[in-house]
Design a protein that fits this description.
Layout: H1 10-23, E1 27-29, H2 30-35, H3 40-48, E2 52-56, E3 59-62, H4 69-80, E4 83-84, H5 86-92, E5 103-107, E6 121-125, E7 133-136, E8 139-142, H6 144-155, H7 157-166, H8 171-180, H9 188-198, H10 201-215, E9 222-227, E10 230-236, E11 241-246, H11 254-269, E12 273-278, H12 279-284, H13 286-298
Parallel strand pairs: 5-6, 11-12
Antiparallel strand pairs: 1-3, 2-3, 4-5, 7-8, 9-10, 10-11
Domain AbiEi antitoxin N-terminal: 17-61
Protein name: Type IV toxin-antitoxin system AbiEi family antitoxin domain-containing protein
Domain AbiEi antitoxin C-terminal: 77-137
């Protein structure tokens, strides 16, 4: 007589489901629940008893778990049937501070998301190279290099700089991702930022600052003025104002940071007022930079 299949005990089954919910931010699909051994009627009973809240077609959040940012992104990718991309993916990688209000997801052409519910998301239908998609903590996302390239249009250089600083991406991985996606729309800003990061951003920032000073007809400054063993990027000797220009943070070494701190301390002791601006500030908010310089010169 053939052996009867073993039936999972209720306690063991509940523990398995609870573990899944804990590992998936409280999110579970009907298909996952059935795979864990629950019956269709058992799933429906949980919904009727308000133990599980329906977020979309066949998508649930256990009421013992809050709808966190992680749960929101996890649910969006499952409902859409694709991979989180751009700023949404950058957030999942830990490279962006905030998850967008509307999660963005890449889905294959022709894929129709399940019925939408409480989760807001937008889909882009396209095919991505396999090298640019990954499964991270159980969620399909675009890999860090491509995520940062796409997010650069919305978040600008600081996000790319941060990713380079942390080692989550390198110039090489960014350049390879650009090459794989050559011709794809929406990456023009990313190409510009990668080119700047790969070049001498600090020198370019200094040239940009000099152009701004001339454009606003601000005079009385000296570039690369000697100051003891140091040189000041820009000095206004009459007002004892020094302006230091930084490139991208990922280029800065601990030795360079220590030398800059020493220079700033010596300037302060000598009665100078130091200002410091980054390439990102000059690139994204040049008028604010000039306003600060004018205010300092007016004191």
């Amino acid at each position: 007589m053939p052996a009867r299949p073993m039936v999972m005990g209720t306690f063991t089954q509940e523990r398995t489901v609870a573990r899944h919910l804990a590992d998936h931010d409280g999110i579970i699909t009907r298909r996952e629940a059935l795979a864990l051994g629950l019956s269709t009627s058992a799933v429906d009973r949980r919904v009727r008893a308000k133990l599980w809240h329906q977020l979309g077609s066949g998508m649930y959040l256990a009421t013992t778990h809050p709808l966190t940012e992680a749960a929101r992104l996890r649910a969006a990718t499952k409902i859409a049937g694709g991979a989180a991309d751009s700023l949404s993916a950058a957030w999942w990688h830990g490279l962006a501070d905030d998850l967008p209000d509307v999660v963005t997801v890449t889905v294959p052409p022709g894929r129709k998301p399940r019925t939408r519910g409480a989760i807001r998301f937008e889909v882009t239908r396209r095919r991505l190279p396999a090298e640019d998609v990954d499964l991270l903590r159980g969620v399909a996302v675009t890999r860090a290099p491509f995520s940062i390239l796409e997010a650069a249009t919305a978040a600008g250089g600081p996000l790319m700089d941060r990713a380079l600083q942390t080692g989550a991406v390198t110039l090489t991985t960014l350049e390879k991702a650009l090459a794989r996606n050559a011709g794809r729309p929406g990456l023009a800003e990313a190409r510009r930022l990668v080119a700047v990061a790969a070049g001498d951003a600090e020198s370019e920032a200094e040239r940009h600052f000099a152009r701004l000073l001339r454009l606003h007809r601000i005079g009385g400054w000296v570039q690369q003025m000697p100051f003891g063993i140091h040189r000041l990027d820009f000095a206004f000797p009459v007002q004892l104002l020094a302006v230091e220009i930084d490139g991208w943070a990922f280029h800065r070494t601990p030795d360079r940071a220590a030398a800059d701190a020493q220079k700033q301390n010596r300037l302060t002791i000598a009665g100078w007022r130091p200002l410091r601006f980054t390439w990102h500030q000059l690139d994204s908010a040049p008028e604010d930079v000039i306003d600060q310089v004018v205010a300092a010169l007016s004191v």
